[in-house]
Structure formats: structure tokens, C-alpha cells
Design brief:
Layout (H helix, E strand, L loop, with lengths): L9 E5 L2 H15 L7 E5 L2 H6 L3 H13 L1 E4 L7 H6 L9 H9 L2 E6 L17 E4 L9 E5 L3 E8 L5 E9 L3 E5 L4 H18 L3 E5 L7 H24 L3 E5 H9 L6 E4 L1 H14 L6 E6 L5 E5 L5 H8 L9 H18 L2 H19 L2 E2 L1 H4 L8 E2 L2 H11 L1
Parallel strand pairs: 1-2, 1-3, 3-14, 5-12, 10-11, 10-12, 15-16
Antiparallel strand pairs: 4-5, 4-13, 6-9, 7-8, 13-14
Helix pairs in contact: 1-10, 1-14, 3-5, 6-7, 11-12, 12-14
Bound molecules: NADP nicotinamide-adenine-dinucleotide phosphate and magnesium ion (MG).
Keywords: Magnesium, Manganese, Metal-binding, NADP, Oxidoreductase, Tricarboxylic acid cycle
Catalytic activity: D-threo-isocitrate + NADP(+) = 2-oxoglutarate + CO2 + NADPH
Organism: Treponema bryantii
């Protein structure tokens, strides 16, 4: 077969440990034989990031902005143990944090569904895409433990020197207080990321907050979402046949639990922290969860939700063929290739990505899978494969 041609390149961000090992196997077995793969390669392995004082991470972020599409392997976020293990010059910040800040982006997580893995919520027939606002609120808070009775006040001093002062509480005894904030800019970007990605996927957006109680703070979230939607997205949503739906957060939770899925759930920072873990665990396995970083102006970086699977890597170094699940990493590649094909007008690339996804799901649905999902498959797995066997089983179906 003639290899499928690509018009433009994808930013390729290599990573660490077991996922780096699988990265190469996926490329060699499932991509390079079929596609004349064009990528701009960035080695985001920990040592390379450290050697370049993180310049390579910033260069990779720049490439995603320029090419509009990137695919990323899981990477180590360094801590003291890693500094010693890899003999690093310094503690490097999280590469995902750097790229997210450079792109001003939001992360959307989405489970991959197969018919023989049943989530714990039986009415969910389609994936729920969860978007979490990753700035501010309680994650950038300021707290005081008040030792005595006293007056708690909220004070804002504007750049013009004008003061706004309100009493939180005349406290009759010792207690606790907390100050939190958010920024209109950040909320606007978050809203744009949600609407941009939902439009891309042709799914409706649900957003919930507690504006009946928090009339100013949560009310501001609600108002900004509505304004951004009306001014910039309403016409496009109408044309795509999808909608934006706002409801109170507790009502949103109740509706999500009895829905059949197939929409985006946009959440404030704390709600997203809690609810993304609920959705991930209800869907079975972290290894069956993809993640995409979307910038408000429409750049996309695809990756797996899980980390570098460190424990498996140490077993691999001792010579073991581990049964590490490559599905989320394969779907990161198919997501990026399909997006590239869509932007470039090369339908054969989009079609290839779809077929690779189909071959992957078919392999599992026929009973051949890695150990992590074999544990929860129903009907039971026919054969538990190591990663290399599993990838070649996908290739034979592809
Ligand atoms: P992890 O890599 O997600 O793995 C935690 C455990 O989950 C594994 O030990 C394994 O359980 C299971 N698991 C995860 N992915 C799997 C897969 N594909 N196939 C089979 N089992 C899988 O988290 P971690 O070990 O806590 O973190 C390792 C490194 O990853 C850390 O340095 C962290 O900084 C980094 N990390 C990176 C990202 C990212 O780049 N996006 C995200 C999270 C963490 P069993 O051992 O029970 O088989
Ligand atoms: Mg959480």
C-alpha cells in the first residue's frame, strides 16, 4: 500500500519511562508502516528537559501554537527522588503546567468506551467529556485561623486607591476564614476553550455553579459564560445542532447521574477536581481515559490521562514484558492525526485514525487485552496479552 501523505506536521512530544517505551512501539508498528509521518520532534524526557533548562518544553509549546496540533507522551514531574535518580541540575516544573500556561488552555478528559467493560453507572452509554477550570478559587486561597472572637472583613484596594470594604462576620468566638478570587480573563478563556472544543466535537455543553447562593462570585461565572456564548458561539452552535445549558451545580450532578452521556460537562475548579475522579473511577480504568488540552484560539494537544507507569518500567528494565495498556496513548495519536487531517483537508488521514481506533476497540471486544482491563472485563478476557502482543493483535486487525 502507498503510504498516506501528510500536508503539515504535528508537534510530537516524547516523554518518560514505560510510556516512552510504548511510544516507539506504537509508532513502529501502527503508524510508520502506513503513514509518511511528518512530525516536529521534541524530547520531553526528564533528562532532556533538565539539560535544556526547560527550553525544550517552551519550544514544544511554541510548535503546538504554530502547527495547531500536538501529541504528547506522559512525562515525569520531578520531585526530590527524581533529582537523585536522574542526577538533575534542578527541580523542573511540571511540563504539563508550562504548556497549559503557554497555551492558556483547558484540559478535557474523556473515557474510551468498549462493550465488554461496564462502568458502574449503567445509564451512561456515551462518554462524558469533563472540562475543569484550572485557575483560582480555593486552589489559590488565603486562610486565617482566628484565635479569638472578632470582626472578619473583606477589603479590596483598587489601583486607583479606592477601597471596598465589607463585613464577612462579627465572630462571637474563634473560627476560620478564607479569601478566594478569580479573574474575568481566566473565566472568559475557560468558557472559550469549552465552547471551541464542544463545537469541534459537536456535543452540547452543560455548566453548573451555585449562583443562587453565591450571587456575585458564581453569578459572575454564569454571566461571563452566557455573554461569551451569546456573542461568539450561539450562531455556530445553532448551525451544529448543539446547545449550551446552564443549571445549578447540584441539579447538574443529579442530571449527569441519570443521563446517557455524550456531552461536555464544564466545571469550576473544585467541582472538576472532585467530579473528574468520580467519572474516571466509574468508567473503569485510568488507562482507558484520554485527555486533550485546548486553547481558546483553537490549538489542540492530545495525550493519555495516566502517567509514565513507573512501576511497570522498573519491571521492564529487569527484562519483563509488561502488560501495560497502550490504548490511551494510541488514542492520543489518533486524536492528533484526525485533527491534522481535518485541518489540512486530507480525509484519508482522518479515515486512517478512525480505523486504528476501531481496530483497537475490536481487539478488546474480541477478548484480547492487557491485564488492567482483563480484571474488570465481562465477559471474561480470552487472553491477557503483554503490550507488544496486544499492539501486534491491533495491527493484524488494522
Ligand atoms: P501512573 O503512571 O498513572 O500509574 C499509576 C498506576 O496506575 C500504575 O502503577 C498502574 O497500576 C496503573 N496504570 C496507569 N496507567 C496504566 C496503563 N497504561 N496500563 C496499566 N496500568 C496503568 O501514575 P504514577 O505511577 O503515580 O506516576 C508515574 C509518573 O507519571 C510520575 O513521575 C508522575 O509525575 C507522572 N505523571 C505524568 C502525567 C502526565 O504526563 N500527564 C500524569 C500523571 C502522572 P499497577 O501498578 O497496579 O499495575
Ligand atoms: Mg481530583
Amino acid at each position: 500500500m502507498a503510504k498516506i501523505q501528510m500536508k503539515n506536521a504535528i508537534a510530537e512530544l516524547d516523554g518518560d519511562e514505560m510510556t516512552r517505551v510504548l511510544w516507539k512501539v506504537i509508532k513502529d508498528e501502527l503508524l510508520l508502516p502506513y503513514i509518511d509521518l511528518k512530525t516536529e520532534y521534541f524530547d520531553l524526557g526528564l533528562k532532556s528537559r533538565d539539560d535544556s533548562d526547560d527550553k525544550i518544553t517552551y519550544a514544544a509549546a511554541e510548535a503546538i501554537k504554530r502547527l495547531h496540533v500536538g501529541v504528547k507522551c506522559a512525562t515525569i514531574t520531578s520531585n526530590q527522588a527524581r533529582v537523585e535518580e536522574y542526577k538533575l541540575k534542578q527541580l523542573t516544573p511540571s511540563p504539563n503546567g508550562i504548556i497549559r500556561a503557554e497555551l492558556d488552555g483547558t484540559v478535557f478528559r474523556e473515557p474510551i468506551f468498549v462493550s465488554n467493560i461496564h462502568g458502574t453507572v449503567s445509564c451512561w452509554k456515551k462518554p462524558i467529556v469533563l472540562g475543569r477550570h484550572a485557575y483560582g478559587d480555593v486552589y489559590k486561597n488565603c486562610e486565617i485561623k482566628c484565635p479569638t472572637a472578632g470582626k472578619a472583613e473583606l477589603v479590596f484596594t483598587g489601583v486607583d486607591g479606592k477601597e471596598i470594604r465589607k463585613t464577612i462576620m462579627d465572630m462571637k468566638g474563634p473560627g476560620i476564614i478564607q479569601g478566594i478570587h478569580n479573574l474575568d480573563n481566566s473565566i472568559e478563556s475557560f468558557a472559550r476553550c469549552c465552547f471551541t472544543y464542544a463545537l469541534d466535537r459537536k456535543i452540547s455543553v452543560w455548566f453548573g455553579a451555585k449562583d443562587t447562593i453565591s450571587k456575585t462570585y458564581d453569578g459572575n461565572f454564569k454571566a461571563i459564560f452566557q455573554r461569551v456564548f451569546d456573542e461568539e458561539y450561539k450562531a455556530k452552535f445553532d448551525a451544529a445542532g448543539i446547545e449550551y445549558f446552564y443549571t445549578l451545580i447540584d441539579d447538574a450532578v443529579a442530571r449527569v447521574m441519570r443521563s446517557e452521556g455524550g456531552f461536555m460537562w464544564a466545571t469550576k475548579n473544585y467541582d472538576g477536581d472532585v467530579m473528574s475522579d468520580m467519572i474516571a473511577s466509574a468508567c473503569g480504568s485510568l488507562a482507558m481515559m484520554t485527555s486533550v488540552l485546548v486553547s481558546p484560539d483553537g490549538n489542540f494537544e492530545y495525550e493519555a490521562s495516566h502517567g509514565t507507569v513507573q512501576k511497570h518500567y522498573y519491571r521492564y528494565l529487569k527484562g519483563e514484558k509488561t502488560s501495560t495498556n497502550p490504548v490511551a496513548t494510541i488514542f492520543a495519536w489518533t486524536g492528533a492525526l484526525a485533527k491534522r487531517g481535518e485541518l489540512d483537508g486530507t480525509p484519508e488521514l482522518v479515515e486512517f485514525a478512525k480505523r486504528l481506533e476501531k481496530a483497537t476497540l475490536q481487539t478488546i471486544e474480541e477478548g484480547y487485552m492487557t491485564g488492567d482491563i482483563a480484571r474488570i472485563a465481562e465477559p471474561a478476557a480470552k487472553e491477557v496479552l503483554d503490550s507488544w502482543q496486544f499492539i501486534s493483535a491491533i495491527r493484524s486487525r488494522l
